[in-house]
Task: structure prediction
Amino acid sequence: MMENLVWGYIYPNEAEIQWSILIVLYPYITGLVAGAFIASSLYHVFGNKDIKPVARFALLTAFAFLCVAMLPLLAHLGNPQRALSIMFTPHLSSAMSGFGYIFSFYFIVVVLEIWLAFRVDIVNAALNSRGWKELLYSALALFSYDISEKALEADEKLGRKLAIIGIPSAAFLHGYVGFIFGGIKANPWWSSSLMPIIFLMSAIVSGIALLILLYLVVMRIKKHPINHKTLYSLAHYLWVFLIVAVVLEMLEIISIKYEALEEIEIIEHLLAEKIAFTFYGIQLTMGALIPFILLLLVGVIKNRDKLKVAMVAISSMFILIGVFAMRWNVVIGGQEISKSLAGTMTYVPVFFHHEGVLPAIIILIIPFIILRVVTYILPPWKDMMEENEEVAVSSE
Amino acid sequence: MNLSRRDFTKIGSKIVIGAASGPVIIDALVKKARALEISPLRDYDWNEHFWGYVVDTTKCIGCGRCANACKLENEVPFDEPVYRTWVERYRVLKEGEAVIDSPNGSIDGFTDDIPEDEINKAFYVPKICNHCENPPCVQVCPVGATYTTNDGVVLVDYEYCIGCRYCIQACPYGARYYNNEKGTADKCTWCYHRITRGLLPACVKACPVGARKFGDLKDTESEVNKILDRERINVHKPELGTKPKVYYIGLDRVVR
Result:
């Protein structure tokens, strides 16, 4: 069996692929976090009112995925009980050593921002409920019930400042994940100074796509008409960031091919034999070309909202799959070429294994459960619907 | 023979106690001996040495005794594809293509699977951790579990490694592997337990043709220093700036 998995010459120690599907999941999840957060700042920082209906929901989505961002890494470690060493004794020359701090800092920023965004709701819930609910919301309000105009103004100022800190930290959280790969000179498929920005752009794309899909699903569950202005605004950003992301990804490939260094042969083999389907097929055609055309049409076509909503939904779904394929092509693709540059290996995912497909699926499901619980405690539906009615009224 | 009940009990309990304590005592003695063997000599000063390694590819015959000796000496599992050292065979065919292989890291030797008349030239290249002066594996370790000793050896602290395998990704030479039993990264130590006691690494000791040389770069009279002074040498992937301390004589351009 081994013979079929190996092509050419690989170093004897390379027979085992070290970073599994879980390490594909890790940049995927942090990307969704960073993307959802940046989508929410389109309203919170840049004041785009069209995004307002989903701005707070986007924060909760970022939070839900942030909660599980650590899990794939922990499940992957050989000695997870020593994981905290990365916080207590970080080895600062390592790109990975900052992870604990950046993650924690970002976590605090997101939680604070959610708290500020929902403070009025929390205080009102605390004042208008009894029993355990009163206790829960009072605790969430930190037993401070001041929602006078002055206090709210102070809140808003602080919220803006936080969001402004939040954008670079979201960019840093994910750009840095790109650097973990981009800084590895041993691997020609990874080593690139473009890697952080490619990761960041595709993260924003995936985050917005996720937000769009969740918005459509929520509105369907709530049996409420969709706010088309919000949807098309999100679709517009999705289209812009998709173009930037794909241009950068192409630039990377074109430079590799044009410079044609020592590694060109093995990379061409990788693209042609190993990841042809996931790269050309899923990442570029399904995840970029088709959504690019569909979203372009959404921008061009007048009226026909039903069709346009369907096109946005399909684009978002394809983009989410395409970005996952992109993470796969980087993480797994990079490991399928031997550092001897003379051979390739094949990663065969297993299902029932602590680093297998099953835990990956579980880790991907948990955030949706968290999101359900968090939106139960802090319902963001009001903004999603109120605005809607206004629009509905004004358009009639 | 007449045995009183009292004597019987006495002898019996002696046997029982002896049988029970014997293995414990033997085990303790073995452990003590092993501890003595792996702990560095008390008078070893790591500031007085800086180790270097020379491979003469023109001498290697590809017998694989080095790779075998290494696994035995360092208890590297024989049934897993993990190696601290291995030998590669390069066969440049007449049509120009270079065929490279290292079946089971060369431990079982090589077989002739290409007719001689199709081969233009062939040679063996022993590989081992380069103990780089600028080691990328040490750079990327997030907790500092892998480090360079003062005498220039790159080691892994098995009690501290979290098993993230970033170092395995960062090594351009494929010299590192994952130790399934310990859940940590693992690699060649240049037999640190031997060299700090004045012995040679197992692979150097096992080589029947002297293709592997080991010595102190701080000692001007050492064999490795003399070779470095006299021969034209090269290292693997010098363009990566890792500054390997395994120096090669007769390194061909097809070597990866």
